Structures are given as C-alpha cells and as structure tokens.
Amino acid sequence: MNLWESVSIRNLELDNRLVMLATHMSHCDEDGIVTDKLVEFYRERARHKPGLIIVGGCYTEHLGRGTPTMIGISKDSHIEGLRRLTDAVHSHDVPVSAQLYHAGRYAHSIVLGQQAVSASEVKCRLTRETPRALTPEEITQTVDNFGISAKRAKNAGFDAVEIIGSAGYLINQFLAEATNKRTDEYGGDFESRSRFPLEIVTQVRKAVGPKFPILYRMSGDDFVPNGLTLEDNKILAPRLVKNGVDCLNVTGGWHQTRVPQITMDVPRGWYAYLAEGIASVVDVPVVACNRINNVRLAERILSRGKVQLVGMSRGFIADPELPTKARMNQHELTRPCIACNQGCLDKVFMIEPVTCALNPLAGYETQRKLGPHGEGKIAVVGGGPAGMETTRVLALRGFDVTLYEQNDRLGGLLRLAAKIPGRGEFSAYVVYMERELKRIGVDIRINEQATAETLVDEGYHCVVIATGTIAGAPSIDGVEMSHVTTAYDVISLGLDNLHDVVVVGGSALGCYTALYLASRADSVYIFEADEALGVDLGRTTRWVILKGLKEKGIHMHTDAKVTEIDSSFVSVLIDGEHEEVDAHIVVLATSPQPRDRILKQLEGTSLRIESVGSVKKPMRLLEVIHEAYKFANSLEV
Q1: Spatial distance between the Cα atoms of 337 and 317, rounded to a whole number of angstroms
Q2: Which of 37, 110, 231, 611 could lock 465 by a disulfide, CB 3.0 to 4.6 Å apart?
Q3: What would the DSSP string read from start to end of 334-379?
C-alpha cells in the first residue's frame, strides 16, 4: 500500500492517504467565528495537498466549548466563516472535514460561565472541578446538537464530518466506567454506556444523509483506570460502523492519561498498533496516528497492510510543505516536528494561540513575511538555535552571511539536550538546520573561535552575537573544589562511574542532568531551593520528566538549599535543619549566565554589534527561535 495512492471514504475520493488531523489553534474570535488567521493557516497547508484536512474541534453547543477561541459550529452565524475556510482549502482541490466536538467535563466553568457537564458528577483532575450530570432530556438535546452541527458543516461546504470520541471528551466520559456512574439507560454495562455515541452517530447520519462521509475519532485504549481497553474498542468499532461511520481515526489516551502519548520520549509510531487492532475488526478505512512525524514512517506503517490512512498534525505545523517535499524525494529538507510541545499542546493548555517552536511562521501566516532583500556582509557568532535561525533568515533575505561555531558541530546546547534519555529528537532539528544552511549557501566555519581581531579584519557590516549561555556558579562555600563540575560539562564529557552524585538546582537543566546521570551513578540527588522542580518545563512535558525521575530512583528534594560543599559531602538546609549527604561528584545546574565575552571584546571597535537569543536573557527554545526570526527579518544594514 502506497501513501500516494488514492483511497475512498464512502463516496469521498482522496488523492493520497496522508491526513492532516484536527488541530486546535485558538485562532477564532470569542464568538467562535473563523478569522483570517485560521483561514490562512489552513490555506498554506492545503497548498501542499495532503489527502484530507480535518478542521477542529468545532464545538457543537455552548456547553461543549473547551476554550474561548476554538471553532464554533453551534450557531448558524458560524457558517459564513466556516465557508471561507472550506473555500480556501478547496481552492487547492483538497477535501476538508469538520470535527464535531464536545468537551464535557474538560470545559472550565470560567469559560462556560456555568458548571461543566458530563455523564456523572466525577471530579476532573484536569480542571480540578466537578461537573454536573446531564439529565436524560439534556442528553437527547446534546445528541440532536451533534446532528444539527453536522448539517451546518455540510452547508458550510465541508466534505465530511468527524465525531470526536477520544481524548477523554464527553463521549469518552459516557463510555468509561471511570466517569460514568449512571444507573439509567446510559449507564451500567458496556452496552448501555455505548448508547450515547451510537445515538450521536445515528443522528449525524440522519442529518447529513446517506452519501455524506462520517469519520469517528476514537481512543484505541484510554490508558486510564476503568477506561476502555483495545479489546473493548474492538467491540465498539463494528457497532459504530453499523450505525453509519465510514472511517475510524484511532488515537490513544485521555488528556489525564499518565502514559505518555505524544511527548518526545514516546518512540515514533509507537501507538500504530491501536489502529491496526481496530482495523482487524472493521471493513472501513482506519487512520493510524500519534507520534508519526515524517512521511517515511507513514509509508512504513502503511506497508504493513493493516491500516489505510496515516494522520499527523504537528508535522504539518512544523512544515506545511511536508507532502510536497516528500513527493519530490526531499525528505531531508523537511523541518521535523520534535514533539517538544512548546508551541502547540503547551499553548492549548495555556489557552494561547498555537504556533511551533521550530517554525516561527506557523500561526503567523498573515503577519510574518520574509523581509526585504538585503545586501552586505554579516557575521553570526554562535551556532546554537538562535545563531542558526538568524543565519537562515538573513541568508534567505540575500545577505552574505558567515556563521562561526567554535565546536565541531552546530547545535549548541541542543546537542547536549539530545543526549538526555528521551530527548534525542533535539538532534533531528540540528541535522535539519545543518542541511538547510548548506543548501542556501551559508559560509559555515566550524571549529573556529571568532575573535574581535578576526571579525574586524574580515570587514563585516554587522556582527550578530548568538553565543548563548555558560554554566553559572552559585555562591556556595566549596564551589571551587575539584570534584565540583557543571551540568554542561558532565553531559558533554560523558562522565561515568560517578558513585554518589548531588545535582544542585532543580530547573529543567537540573532535571535533565539527573535523568542523564541516573544510569551513570550509584545514587543521584537533586536539591532545589524553591518549592517545585522543573517549573520552566512545559506543562505537557514536565509531568513526564518528573515521572521519569521517580522511576529511575532519583532522590528529589525541594525547599532544600545547599549551603556548603565538602570533599565528600554536601550540607543541605531542609526544614530549618542541616543534613549531610554523601557526594563524590557535585554537579551545578543553577541559573546559567550569558556567554558574553566576545561582546565585551568588541566594545570600542568600529563594528556594528547586535545580539540575539539567550545571550541577552534566559529563553526557552520557542522564544529563542521566534525572537531570532523576528530580529533577522527586520535587520537593516
């Protein structure tokens, strides 16, 4: 089975088997009306012709609204904006489906202006609120609203609808014993708990007619206690098809699942087995998804002959040209999704517009365009993410750019981050940027330390300093001792057989370092002076990192201040008392400092000097790359 072969969903013909999955972008206005920003985001993806684009979630009623700026399909006033969106996608001859969405207990009362609803009154860990149970009459109205919204989708020009019955939203809440404690016809045994989704499918089919395609997104396994398993869903899937579903889109897990689903530590394509399991019991097309971030992986999954389509979302956010580059056999030129979640899922949970850490144009299609053509010689010092992105944009604008990197590879601290267990995807971005910079003709000088003298002699019109940070040394007695090192050094040097290790500092750097050291030491302690570990990690990544630390037996202590380092132990102030902890090696992972020596050396020269990235102030990867793009795109020489 080939990715570029056509396939049908009922009577809808897809030119290829690559599906762009529903992607919550937070790009609508507060009434759920589609904006130009959302239209242009999808227009750009449609231009490169995936087989199908699914838009959503689109809330079917006010009580189903998950965030203030998600897509509305609950009122006739939403149709005009939705039609502008479908027209934009159709202008590139790509079919588009609307995902019909109801958050249930995942909706916040502050968004709704009232208490959220669910199958039963079971407190939600995600919102920390308890919903009220829908009455039988309200259930009937909710089912009707799915049908009414499906008809609106058809009227707005969509080619299909997808019902979302995954991720822990309302349909899942009726299906799972964990959240369904009802004793009426919608609760109890599995057959009764299945009544709600089956009624929705039946109502949607009635609303759209016999020929209009209906997709259904399901959790192959809920991965929550008393949730549905793959075997349960193998029973449900044929019933959905019998009631009118034409295609099953199979994901895994709920938002509150404690089994990682789409974070960087999950191997690529890890959950395709769920879709393959569902495909074994139905005779309609099945979509495999979750941690599928490139076309070659999609092709391998299809080659097994078990599923008919492959879906991805974040791959299209990172690089809308993904299908075009794949067709041209330019896989290596595709900007990868590294599953960092900084620009996408983290933004969703912060109720902020979605973008991409690696693609500063994602979500900014109407605002960010390549700056005017530039002339002149520019040196960029530092080959980390800020330096690479600055160099890329300046070169695309026409400047003659030279990039200096003192090490033997580009990447900066991303190369160290990639050595952390479960963080290897960072290297994929570095490799991509190395190729991209060579492709656009940048003069890359690795293993070359830029000096003030060299930069002056080369006659540059501007020098951009992107040297990032160096390890900081806190004011602790004994910090100068020989067995004290830094997080940067312990990772870059690959130190091993370290016996008892103390990591001072529990930020992301300290947590990553402890994970790295877990297999290289007899014991690892983290001491963080503040009240929590990893506070600078993204919301959807932090719990995975903390879970990993716990599983690896790392001793984690907060509100713990290291006050002294001795030759064989550290003294730590915990709860007002000093404790001594054995330490053969002490690793400093406290706040890094700007690597600004070259900046100071250049003071007083005739060169124009600019700086970008973490050398200016602490930044996360998303901030570094977006700031570098904006800086380089507006620079005038």
Answers
A1: 8
A2: 611
A3: SPPP----TTTHHHHHTT-----SS-TTTT-TTT--------SEEE
pLDDT for the residue numbered 604: 86
State the CB neighbour count (10 A cutoff) for residue 418. 19
The number of residues making up the chain comes to 637
Q: State both tokens at 304.
A: 């097994």
Pairwise CA distance, residues 596 & 599, whole Å: 5
Per-residue pLDDT tens for 183-202? 999 999 999 999 999 999 99
Task: State the amino acid at position 370 in one-letter form.
Answer: L
Residue among 294, 222, 293, 213 nearest 251 (CA): 222
CA distance 452 to 463: 10
- Angstrom distance (rounded) from CA 282 to CA 241: 8
d(C-alpha 581, C-alpha 490), whole Å: 20
Task: Report whether 446 contacts 437 (CB < 8 A).
Answer: no
377-381 and 400-405 as β-strands: parallel, antiparallel, unpaired? parallel
Nearest in space to 117 (alpha carbons), one of 75, 165, 62: 62
* CB crowding 194-233: b at 16 or more within 10 Å, else e: bbbbbbbbbbbbebbeeebbbbbbbbbbbbbeebbebebb
CA–CA dist 285, 634 (Å, integer): 47
Domains and CATH numbers, the chain: 7-349 (3.20.20.70), 377-470+594-634 (3.40.50.720), 484-591 (3.50.50.60)
The answer to whether residues 625 and 360 touch, using CB atoms and an 8 Å cutoff, is yes
Q: What is the pLDDT of residue 497?
A: 85
Note the pLDDT of residue 10. 97
| In contact, 490 and 576? CB cutoff 8 Å | no
Distance from the first to the final alpha carbon of the chain: 53
Write down the residue that tokens 């109502």 correspond to. Answer: 203
Predicted pLDDT of residue 1: 81
Q: 585 - beta bridge partners?
A: 501
The answer to whether the Cα torsion of 414, 415, 420, 423 is positive or negative is: positive
Strand (E) or helix (H) holding 487: helix 487-492
213 close to 180: Cβ distance less than 8 angstroms: no
Query: What pairs with residue 405 in β-bridges?
Result: 446
pLDDT tens digits along 444-490 = 999 999 999 999 999 999 999 999 999 888 999 999 999 999 999 99
Closest of 523, 538, 514, 564 to residue 622, by C-alpha: 538
- SS3 string, 539-596, reads HHHHHHHHHHHHHCCCEEECCEEEEEECCCEEEEEECCEEEEEECCEEEECCCCEECC
**Residues 117 and 72: beta-carbon distance below 8 Å:** no
Give kind and range of the element (H or E) at residue 13. strand 12-14
Per the CB < 8 A criterion, the answer to whether 480 and 633 are in contact is: no
28 neighbors 38 (Cβ within 8 angstroms)? yes
Residue 514 pLDDT > 90, yes or no?
Answer: yes
Question: Can you give the pLDDT at residue 336?
Answer: 97
Sheet holding 555-557, edge to edge: 484-486, 585-588, 500-504, 523-527, 555-557
Residue type, 319: D
Give Cα 540 to chain centroid, integer Å. 8
The phi, psi pair for 552, rounded to 5°, reads: -90, 5
Largest CA distance in the chain: 83
